[in-house]
Specification:
homotetramer, alpha/beta, 8-stranded parallel sheet, 3-stranded antiparallel sheet
């Protein structure tokens, strides 16, 4: 038998989301013919989002590698896990994996003369499904947080707004983002988990936020390094975690992330 | 033997530059075997850099299309033309074309905990050969301009620093970037060419800069819309132009850019 | 009869406030002997705050003159009216008048190495009783709005936080300032009164804010130019107005302010 | 005749400067009659400028006390010494002393709608003769440094631009300020004197700056704590020092400042 089917390429084209569902198109190219199969992938609590920051361990090719390990854990455990690579890596990562991809920031701008800024439409076109907003390392003016959340709605992007303390979380709740992530900045990158060191920050946040907004998903972050930290976070009432160095700088990111994912099932 | 050479893919892998040369690797994949041929591409005056800003006409797939038109003009005319797409499009554009690609901005940071920032290493890994710095739409603290120029040197990235007026251009000259682009902000996007409306801004800039720095390449920009504007810019003593809406928002970007490129040969 | 009592100076020393009361000390110097008489001045709704911005008509000596006219209206009408002069004029104005004086901004800093910043303690020592925060011309990061409100509490300063729209007003309400001033930025300085052009912005703000915070005083601003605009603002449920050009740039600020003050009694 | 000269008040009204001369009017009030005597006070190298930052030890009444001690040293030693108190204290300090007073920062704005900003005209009207610009604790965009220097010229204010390193100092030299102060930020507040720990930073600065600008006065700062540090700074070729904690936080500021002033005569 002579082989004909000489080139077969399978790609997942993320084309946007309907809130917590990641609309994915499975595109199969067989000898120049393409078949597209739409898939609906759930992205729902418990949620883990891995922030790649600007770590060299998660830059360029290594961003793709880490995203693939994350996808592996997500597929194996059925836990919703997203990744937030650098702007320059979003397109490549979104092409390489089927899990949800987030930007780390977008700017409160419309298309036009804005050299060096990050446009929602460009993030959307890469296949990312959402963006972090107001991370403690990229804090924004109050009116810009509001403007960016409104822009994410226009683009069907998921908004993940970070907040430093319970009061700020409550303030953010009035702006009606999809997800709030409470992260005490003094614990970020320390390995001291917020869920154990400052449980009251989390419970206060949940209490204040829920008085204002019943729908918003609440995550916590900062210092999360072990499965038990994730478990503690969920027990306190959060719906997931935002993590970074605990995974990115781990000796074996796959193993630690797998521990995190399994800890969500208790 | 039956197999026809069924899959042949040719890609150019930009892997950095040695100042005004773009080191490119021509990678030919023939049925899983890859042959790499190093090329040295000149990027030298007269220079045209096309800033894609955050125009929808130059976002995502359209960024790739515009970059390909630019490459076509560059190949046909032998004029050095670079493109500066959005962060999210750099990787895709740099893979699609062999002409030099620039970021529109990088941040004065080292790898680490800097969510939502732009790392030089990530830009370099995409295959971009340099970056715009301090564009009037993304102005920076003086000490950050200095820090970013130093970072570009560590990464062999070409630094293109924008300046508003002759005095600021002279100030930038002391920081020893590779390229200075003088752009009076009041003319940006107007279609009124700096080279005709404010020739003295250009001649004063050249005079003041050359007293301090003999090597730096001097471009001008703002309002450049026709070939004669480019010609006027070169006659005043600049070594090229930085353009944006004149190309990006033109009805036929290829034709206008070709006119620009041809105008450099007078 | 030989005159002896040659020098008698009366000054009002504002020494801080207990929320909406301005603790003032009346200091009478008679030939080197000083008598201090403590006064308690109410600062309570309906409230008018006149923001001097950086108008030349309200800079230096003219700031003192305008503050004296404001004091005259306040004394004549018994309406609580405060003034917010520039940083450099606060001390002089606070010595010259007995009405409440506000800073236009303070920074989220503690005493120390912060060249060129505005310290709460320095504002307090001038005799000012509070500060504007997050004015649309001096917008702040969300976490800084929170930090500054906390600092005002430590210094018994009244916090007047400006907000652009109803959602942002609601967000601010969670941070528990003393006063929220809703000001649609597109109407600031236009003479088109928010209370007539965008009544729903005001009623929505009141509704959203009151769901979160029952105590905070709600003002509105932008375009307020006539007594009837003030009246309309109060009828919509606000407790006063924040005004600037309507008074500062009026031909006869005293007359316009008197009209404003009288309009609060309907 | 019976009348004793019962009230005599002498004040110095600083009304601006002609570059390095402080135009002062000596105003003598004798029983309601005022005699004005214009004085010209030199402010010329060697220069010491004391930056009060936002130290509590130099806030409000303590700012006036420290300024008076500084004036005493200046009068006793005939050395030009200026003070840079907080915005809120400039007016009071400028009225209390005859030595030159500087703002710590001004904004690149014209009079108008700029709530919470610092207007050159307001600083000038307080009697201050100049301003620090771009201190490492209040860094500015390159174009704003340029704009503010131009504004100081319009207002006859002395511009003292701070720079982090020799390259940045050279860049600033092209903007033609009156004074450049080189301060390596890593030494600020450490008590490790730049003039001893990093002499090459100073000599490189002088070399690079003098190639571009022969007139600008060059100061250095950071860690200056003893007379010998001042002496070392002048021996390296500077024309004075910018100091802060070394004086403000000294147990006896008068004694340390007197040591500094005497060290300028070697």
């Amino acid at each position: 038998m002579q082989q004909q089917s000489s080139y077969c390429k399978i790609t997942f084209l993320n084309i946007g989301i309907s809130k917590f569902y990641s609309k994915t198109i499975l595109a199969i190219n067989v000898n120049a013919k393409q078949v597209k199969i739409p898939l609906l992938k759930k992205f729902q609590p418990p949620i883990i989002i891995v922030n790649f920051k600007t770590y060299l361990e998660a830059t360029g090719e290594k961003a793709v590698e880490l995203a693939k390990k994350t996808e592996k854990v997500s597929l194996e455990t059925k836990v919703s896990i997203g990744v937030a690579p650098q702007f320059t890596d979003i397109a490549t990562v979104a092409k390489a994996v089927s899990i949800p991809v987030f930007a780390q920031h977008i700017d409160p701008i419309q298309p036009g003369s804005h050299t060096g800024h990050v446009l929602a439409a460009s993030v959307e076109e890469t296949g990312a499904i959402g963006t972090l907003i107001n991370h403690s390392e990229r804090q924004l003016k109050l009116s810009d947080v509001d403007a960016i959340i409104k822009i994410t709605r226009e683009h069907s992007l998921v908004s993940v707004v970070c907040a430093n303390n319970p009061n700020i979380s409550a303030a953010v709740a009035s702006l009606e983002p999809d997800i709030i992530a409470i992260e005490p900045p003094e614990l970020i990158g320390t390995g001291i988990p917020v869920s154990k060191a400052k449980p009251q920050v989390i419970t206060d946040t949940i209490k204040l936020v829920r008085e204002i907004n019943e729908k918003v998903v609440i995550l916590c972050g900062a210092g999360i390094s072990r499965g038990e930290d994730v478990k503690a976070a969920l027990k306190l009432g959060t719906q997931g975690v935002l993590v970074a160095s605990g995974i990115v700088k781990a000796k074996d990111p796959y193993m630690v992330l797998r521990e995190f994912a399994e800890a969500t099932r208790f």
